[in-house]
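Input record, target 12 of the design panel.
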């Protein structure tokens, strides 16, 4: 699709666009620009394949494994936003789960290819609330939410640091 300025526009979903000027003498690798907005930084999707050891004797993914899938998506979101959990924890702060909710709609099975989407719904001074959708093909199989807090080495509740609010723009953010 072309926009009104003659640029070719590709929709990448999650409120992003790739724009390639139609008539440009700039080399192709330099012509592709991606525009981001806050919504793109607050949502992330990963893919994973169900492993045999994650299933119960009936052949379904054991319910506890969805919490692991949430954690994998959550750390990948932070990494995609420019953060690094290992370096964050080296500062003496730790992200902990204080509440988790999960609604199972249908089972996943061994070797299913799943997509897990995590979205930051809310960040306050003391907590981060994220929602999750696990899909097989385009079918929702699990939905959930997680409330996170930050503590120090002594277990004392801390204010959510800027490096977790927006790692890409935070001067204190460790980069991966």
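The sequence produced for target 12 reads:
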């Amino acid at each position: 699709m072309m926009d009104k300025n003659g640029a070719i526009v590709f929709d990448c979903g999650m409120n992003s666009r790739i724009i390639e000027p139609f008539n440009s003498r700039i080399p192709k690798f330099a012509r592709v620009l991606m525009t981001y907005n806050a919504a793109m930084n607050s949502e992330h999707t990963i893919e994973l394949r169900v492993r045999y050891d994650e299933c119960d004797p009936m052949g379904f993914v054991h319910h506890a494994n969805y919490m692991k899938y949430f954690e994998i998506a959550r750390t990948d979101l932070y990494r995609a936003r420019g953060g690094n959990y290992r370096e964050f924890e080296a500062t003496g702060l730790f992200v902990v789960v204080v509440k988790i909710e999960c609604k199972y709609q249908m089972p996943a099975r061994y070797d299913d290819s799943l997509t897990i989407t995590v979205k930051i719904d809310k960040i306050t001074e003391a907590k981060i609330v994220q929602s999750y959708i696990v899909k097989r093909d385009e079918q929702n199989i699990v939905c959930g939410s997680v409330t996170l807090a930050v503590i120090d080495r002594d277990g004392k509740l801390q204010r959510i640091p800027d490096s977790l609010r927006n790692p890409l723009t935070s001067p204190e953010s460790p980069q991966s």
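Residues 6-40, 169-176 have pLDDT under 50 and may be disordered.
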